[in-house]
Amino acid sequence: MRFPDIAVVLHDMDVVLHVAFREHPQFLPLLQILLGLLLAPLLSGVINCTKSWFAGRRGPPVFQGYYDLFRLLRKGAVFSLTTTWVFQAGPVVGLAVTVAGLSLMPWGSFRSLFAFPGDLILLVYLLGLARFLLVLAALDTGSSFEGMGASRDVTFSALAEVALLLGLAALAHATRDLSLSGILAGVAALPWAEWAPSLLLVGAAFVIVFLTENARMPVDDPNTHLELTMVHEVMVLDHSGPHLAMIQYASALKLWLLGSLVVGVLIPCDTGVRVVDFLLFPVCLLALAVVTGMIESTMARLRLLRIPQLLVAAGTFSLLALLLMVR
């Protein structure tokens, strides 16, 4: 196919997308949610493949996350006699809350399904609620080992939320909008020559939050089973079967959600052609997964005492960006 033909095809697809969105305003947001639900487990597969390539080994296939979910769904669940209904409800409600957060997250300059002023606060609260339910399920086992992991996870997340909220506040001030859809669309329209320092500071803070909230290096090692270093994995040791599948799927969706924020700030997709912007967004998320795999392959896990310092640095980045934008 020649390049002029590709331009014609993209123009025709852009017209079709524009007409579909005008006649059916909920078409694109629903498509975004559907693709997010479908593609989210692919991000972890890309990360693992990148790490395998850096290590010089073959590694698991890129679709291993899907295989693991299907395998766990076919298994039965085993529950300890010391647990209550809280242990069983935690993964179910946590997954539902994460899916609800997916309906608030836009694809770059495209609006989300439920966009309203202040939805950024609701998104942060939904992520916090999902974490709270997972912590409750870990504490319900009565295991001091899982309680140790829950304590670490809550400590790191409390510091990460400060950086996330300050970064969102800085973006809201720059774009004069309190909706995530308006913020990310406004970031794509900002002149980078003027706003580059502030946006880079917010982007750096969001990258640290992205790695922390998703239990990635250098904050946590998702593949470790050493008792003294486990954080997230230790909280899900007693889960099995479909409940473990729900936790892993919710983690994949959380990876997609926070990755969308990083892409929306650092790689705003605004080419002027809606169909190209729509297709570029998941491609940028896959590129972020490759970068995450590179980070995990080239950095060692930080000592536990160093992680709060890293998160305080992320909060400082967001605060500096806010001060630069309000001056």
The biggest sheet amounts to: none
The number of domains = 1
Are there runs of 5+ residues with pLDDT below 50, and where?
none
Q: Beta-sheet strand percentage? A: under 5%
The tally of beta strands, per DSSP, is 0
Task: Summarize the helix and strand pattern as letters.
Answer: HHHHHHHHHHHH
What is the C-alpha radius of gyration, as a whole number of Å? 20 Å
In whole angstroms, the N-to-C terminal distance is: 51 Å
Number of helices: 12
Q: What class would the helix/strand composition place it in?
A: mainly alpha
Please tell me what the overall shape is.
globular
Whole-number average pLDDT? 87
Proportion in helices: over 70%
Reconstruct the topology from this structure.
Layout (H helix, E strand, L loop, with lengths): L2 H21 L3 H29 L8 H10 L11 H18 L16 H21 L4 H32 L4 H10 L2 H22 L18 H4 L5 H26 L7 H25 L8 H20 L1
Helix pairs in contact: 2-10, 2-11, 3-10, 4-5, 4-10, 5-6, 6-7, 6-8, 6-12, 8-10, 8-12, 10-11
Q: What labels would you give this structure?
A:
single chain; 327 residues; mainly alpha; 12 helices; 73% helix
Task: Please characterize this protein's 3D structure.
The chain has 327 residues and is mainly α. It has one domain (30-326). The chain has twelve helices and no strands. It has helices at residues 3-23, 27-55, 64-73, 85-102, 119-139, 144-175, 180-189, 192-213, 232-235, 241-266, 274-298, 307-326. The longest helix is centred in the middle third of the chain and has 32 residues, at 144-175. The radius of gyration is 20 Å and the shape is globular. The mean pLDDT is 87.
